[in-house]
Amino acid sequence: MDSKEKKAIIVGATSGIGYEVAMLLLKKGWRLGIAGRRKDKLENIRDKDPDRISICVIDIRKENAGQELLHLIEETGGMDLYLHSSGIGHQNTNLDLKIELDTLETNGTGFTRMVTTAFHYFRKQGKGHIAVISSIAGTKGLGVAPSYSATKRFQNTYIDALEQLAHMQKMDITFTDIRPGFVATAILNDHKHYPLLMQPEKVANSIVEGLYRRKRILVIDWKFCILVFFWKLIPSYIWKRLPIRN
Question: Who has greater pLDDT, 230 or 60?
């Protein structure tokens, strides 16, 4: 991937992995369009390099979010890479309905709205790269909201379907499904214990390297991958009975 005058749109760039990836791409000479829900944080990031960073307040749960994305693309001067780093996840052992519905709306409807808008843009342009942070692998048994696990599996399937459609229609669109382990970001700032917790800076470096190599599936931590492999060998009926606490 030649970074000369390349343009990336990052949705969910105000903190965590999205922010760290944005800063790395900026150092590599990319022009950025960044989106999030916090205007103050977006403005602080733009101040780092006003000539190469465009911003837009976007709540992906809103019906007009797709149009706002297209507006940001125009402000940025185009788009070569779309990175979706916007999602929520909570432990929800009490099955709070508001948490479940908000998770579905963000990780399901909002994800579909934004990724589909990017797909249509690249189809019209003739080429592009869609990358999504689709899952924290191995959440089974950790008390996460059922809607979180369901939407993350949906995201994996949706990207597979888009890739198949692009292949059928002979589109030059690259897809990268990013699957990190547990990363020390605000989404896990709940005073719980998570195994093999990684720092976002290290994860971002691996992501950028994977994007340049146009990897289809990018699993960040091989140690976590091995752990998840053995977790998946445990039958569901046993998982239900394990006294797991975070």
Answer: 60
